[in-house]
Write a structure and sequence with these properties.
By secondary structure, the chain is mainly α. It has seven helices and no strands. The longest helix has about 55 residues. It starts with a helix and ends with a helix.
């Protein structure tokens, strides 16, 4: 029986399908496709989704970062100190980092108020880059002073050695 089915498939006329117009084959194809099973929207159109949006709670750390970006160091200092009192695991460490950053920024007298109205995160990165550049300049300056002091030390050691030779040489005579 199965061989009869296979033979029947082989003897099916192929020419008729090829000679049929393209429009007819498209109609047949669309009729044979099952309808799509697209579910209706679950959300009611009258739903006010703004009620469903959860706003993250703003912490003192967030406020401190914004104050830092605005270069209001005294306010940022206050917020970082308050953040240190939070019960979060990392609050103490985050506050220490913020306070250290403020201490370095305050030590820098060239900072001015050159905010570029960037996003808070970008403004903090800008501050960090300015500090990094200034610290590199200080390291370079200290390196030059160190090399001069090392050169002076060598000269002094040479002079002391010569003085010892002269002094000891005279004592032996």
């Amino acid at each position: 029986m199965s061989s009869a089915l296979l033979v029947g498939c082989q003897t099916a006329p192929v020419m008729e399908a090829a000679s049929a117009p393209a429009e007819a084959s498209q109609e047949v194809a669309s009729e044979t496709l099952p309808p799509l099973n697209i579910p209706e929207s679950i959300v009611d159109e009258r739903c006010d989704c703004s009620e469903m949006v959860v706003q993250p709670e703003e912490t003192y750390f967030d406020r401190a970062v914004r104050a830092l970006a605005a270069r209001d160091y005294s306010q940022a200092l206050s917020y970082f100190e308050r953040h240190a009192d939070a019960e979060s695991e990392n609050a103490q460490r985050e506050a220490e980092i913020g306070l250290a950053f403020i201490a370095v920024l305050r030590a820098d007298r060239n900072d001015g108020n050159s905010s570029q109205a960037l996003d808070d995160r970008a403004e903090i990165m800008s501050l960090a880059l300015v500090l990094l550049t200034q610290l590199e300049d200080r390291v370079s300056e200290l390196g030059k002073k160190n090399s001069k002091l090392a050169s002076d030390l060598k000269k002094r050691e040479a002079v002391l050695k010569r003085l010892r030779e002269l002094t000891l040489g005279q004592l032996e005579d």
